[in-house]
Amino acid sequence: MVELRADDGYEREYGMFRGRSAFVFVGLVILTMTVLSSCVERPDLCDFCHVPIPERTRTVVQTEQGDLQSVCDPRCALTHQEQTGAALALLHVTDFETGAPLTPSEAFYVTGSDVTPDAHTATLRNSPQDVAERHWHRCLPSVLAFGTRGAATQFQRRHGGEIVPLEALGFAPAER
Fold first, then answer.
1. 86-97 pLDDT, tens per residue?
2. Which of 90, 109, 119, 136 has the fewest C-beta atoms lying within 10 Å of its C-beta?
3. Exposed, middle or buried: residue 12 (CB in 10 Å: 0-12, 13-18, 19+)?
């Protein structure tokens, strides 16, 4: 039987190998986690309120400097315009019914309905006799775009609100 001692180099060589293995293993785990996290699809966030942009209300506006901004809905852009005083031109809206892109001048807008796609809800009180919830978003009342007057009217009958033309919303002209 061969007896190994620390002074013959075995422990030094193989002990160091175990230490390197652990270091390499930890490095590979970190590298794998980094690669996998970059593969996870992250939602697009609104450039103004930083919430995920719903696919059926995606809106693109142009700033006075010519920058394009992706926002969660037309109301968010209007709120930003009111808060900052900077004029925004509406370049693209999304049909709430179909998710198809629309030219803003050809869309029909329902504002003030009971549908708020990206509103937040919090239960304030929940008992068998009394339930109270709070719904809020910086972009209330909602502004939803539709591709046809018929779709806007049908939605309005179910959810309330008012059908308004683009000009009534208060965006700057798109020709810059």
1. 889 999 999 999
2. 136
3. exposed
Distance (Å, rounded) from C-alpha 63 to C-alpha 86?
8
pTM over 0.70: no
CB atoms within 10 A of CB 16: 10
- The CA-based dihedral angle spanning residues 162, 166, 171, 176, taken in that order and rounded to the nearest 10 degrees: 170
- Longest distance between any two alpha carbons in the chain, whole Å: 95
Q: How far apart are CA 145 and CA 35, in angstroms?
A: 38
Task: Indicate the pLDDT class of residue 61, thresholds 50, 70 and 90.
Answer: very high
Domain ranges of the chain: 6-39, 59-169
pLDDT tens for 6-41 read 555 555 555 555 556 666 666 555 665 655 555 555
* CA Rg value for the chain: 28
Dist CA 119 CA 156 (whole Å): 19
- Separation of alpha carbons 21 and 23, rounded Å: 5
Q: Where are the beta strands (DSSP E) in the chain?
A: 59-62, 68-71, 89-94, 101-102, 108-111, 120-126, 131-136, 143-146, 162-164
